[in-house]
Amino acid sequence: MNGFSLHTVDAGDVLPLRSTKNILMTFEDTDRYQLFGERADAEWAAASPLNDGYVHFGEGHRFFATAVAHEMHCVQVLRMSIANPAHPKVNYAHSAHCLNYLRVYALCNADLTLEKFDPWKGNFTENQIAQTHVCRNWEDAYDLFAENTKEWLGMGGNLRTPD
Question: Of 26, 65, 74, 137, which one is least surrounded by beta carbons within 10 A?
Answer without folding.
Answer: 26
